[in-house]
Amino acid sequence: MSKIIKIFIVFILFALVLCTGCTEGALKEIKADEAGTEADINEDTNTDKQERSINKESIGTVAKEELLELVPWEDYSISINIPSGWNIYTGGEYSTRSILARDPYSELKQLFYFSEAGPVYTSNKMKEDDKSYMDMGGFDVIWFESPVVDPLTGENFLINFGALARTSFFQQVFPEVPILDEVTIISSKSIENNLPYVNDEKLIRAEFKQDSRPGEGYFHIVTANIIGLGYGVMFVGITAPRGLLNLIVPSLLESIRSFEVKRDYVDTCIEAQNRAAAGALEAGRILGSSSDTIMEVWESKLESEQRMSEKYSDAILGQSRLYNPETDEVYEVTPEFYEYYKNYSSEFELNYLQEMPDDKWGYSPLNGAEYIY
């Protein structure tokens, strides 16, 4: 009787993850009905067999070979190649000229470049002093809504960027600004910068939420303290829905590399203010070097970052994974099934599955309900 009860428990646990497999099966049946030919059915069968084996090819290699189609875009000041069909938004002038390109059907797919994003407070005392000044009848401090970022590091600037983006003065200048909430730093790399006004320069990979949707991205951030106030004097980001970032990195880096400031606009900047002109000239060089930096880190740390990202996502989604050393396959299961399998693996024909090895987290998981028996 106890044997029957255990089998019944396993059946219930599998039901928790079986719905995904059922949906995939239904979609395959619809495709077969629409095709209506034996050749198409055979092709579906072959596809199904392919889905049962992990694609050993690196996700980075696939992404480099399958670039998005880029099309040229320009206005009076800048030019850039952006993915076909994406919307583009600009704001600011001269040294504050900024740009955002975004997929209208998936707004987490985006790239942006903000210069002089800020200001933010670098201490609580500064914000308290501004409040006292206004309480005594002084003029409104337009950046009083800004958060306190102390210390003024790239990580802290990114974590507080959502609060900065929500301020009325930022919304007025750039209403389409991505508002990043619940930022979790996955990895961070310091970049040497000898400019005297720079506080910190970092390349950061992070996960976040935007409009309650989970996303992830690479962010190149340079922070500076200018007369006591903090700025992101360069804030470059490429983002995607969580789990899709590595497939979109090469395409968006090609887009960033194509960014150019027009010569006529630079001349106008020089007439207006030399410092702004220098910033406009520097922007093209910075974005080129930024894309190189992101690519270097993406290629060298892809596997470890993917592992950390996938582990974090599994924890949020309440999922677990098992690994088949004989087929080199990864199976996604519920935590309940994972615990049951660890304790009663002898009841399964596939009784040799292992906990996930660290070097397999880059593999796309299969639905455990279809493969574990």
Spell out the blueprint of helices and strands.
Elements: H1 2-35, H2 38-51, H3 59-65, E1 70-74, E2 78-83, E3 87-91, E4 98-103, E5 106-114, E6 117-121, H4 124-135, H5 154-159, H6 161-165, H7 168-173, E7 181-190, E8 198-210, E9 213-226, E10 229-241, H8 245-257, E11 260-261, H9 263-272, H10 274-317, E12 320-324, E13 329-333, H11 335-344, E14 354-355, E15 366-367, H12 368-371
Parallel strand pairs: 13-15
Antiparallel strand pairs: 1-2, 2-11, 3-4, 4-5, 5-10, 6-10, 7-8, 8-9, 9-10, 12-13, 12-14
What does this structure look like?
This protein has 373 residues and is α+β, with helices and mostly antiparallel strands. The chain folds into two domains: 1-53, no CATH class; 69-312, no CATH class. Helix content is 44%, strand content 27%. It is built from twelve helices and 15 strands. The protein has helices at 2-35, 38-51, 59-65, 124-135, 154-159, 161-165, 168-173, 245-257, 263-272, 274-317, 335-344, 368-371; strands at residues 70-74, 78-83, 87-91, 98-103, 106-114, 117-121, 181-190, 198-210, 213-226, 229-241, 260-261, 320-324, 329-333, 354-355, 366-367. Strands 3, 4, 5, 6, 7, 8, 9 and 10 form an eight-stranded antiparallel beta sheet that branches. The longest helix is centred in the last third of the chain and has 44 residues, at 274-317. 34% of the residues are buried. Mean pLDDT is 76; it is low at 1-57.
